[in-house]
Amino acid sequence: RIDSSVTRAVTPLKPVEALASNVPVIASDLPALRGLITPGENGHLIPAGNIDAWAKAIQEMLVDPEAAVLMGKSGRNYVLKHRTWEQSAHHLSEVYERVINLAK
Questions:
Q1: Crossing angle of helices 51-63/65-82, nearest 10°?
Q2: What residues have CB less than 8 Å from 28, skipping those under 6 apart?
Q3: With DSSP H G I counted as helix, E B as strand and the rest as coil, what are the percentages for the chain, rounded to 5?
Q4: Radius of gyration of the chain (CA)
Q5: Cα within 13 Å of Cα(56), Cβ side
Q6: Which pLDDT belongs to residue 103?
Q7: Rounded to whole angstroms, what are the CA distances from 47 to 35, 44, 57, 61, 85?
Q8: Which residues of the chain have pLDDT under 50?
Q9: What residues have CB less than 8 Å from 91, skipping those under 6 apart?
């Protein structure tokens, strides 16, 4: 992703889908993606526009496919723990409850 105000604020769905599919993710190091990707655990965060860093991250995955598989599994575990509809509904419910309590 390029570094823009929109890409800094909006979390794309494709990395979530990749993580859920056991695929490690190489992503631009932007705020919207930092909550998804833990470098070295389920993928890599690369400075946006840094072609050399992107090439290095891809090469690391190709050279060490076992580490890539472990990152993929870690990503799937993260999504199953934090990005399910049940988790989203629970989080949203907590937010609404806080708002209601503040209004009282």
A1: 100
A2: 1, 2, 3, 7, 45, 46, 47, 48
A3: 65, 10, 25
A4: 16
A5: 8
A6: 87
A7: 15, 10, 11, 17, 30
A8: none
A9: none
- Tokens 């526009």 locate to 49
Q: Which of 79, 68, 64 is nearest to 24 (CA)?
A: 68
The Cα–Cα gap between 99 and 93 comes to 10
Structure tokens at 52: 């050399």
How far, in whole angstroms, is CA 86 from its chain's centroid?
18
Phi-psi region of 11 (alpha: psi -120 to 50; beta: other; left: phi over 0): beta
Work out the angle at residue 24's Cα, subtended by the Cα atoms of residues 34 and 11, and round it to the nearest 5 degrees: 35
Q: What is the per-residue pLDDT for 1? A: 83
Give the tens place of pLDDT for each residue, 20-45. 999 999 999 999 999 899 999 999 99
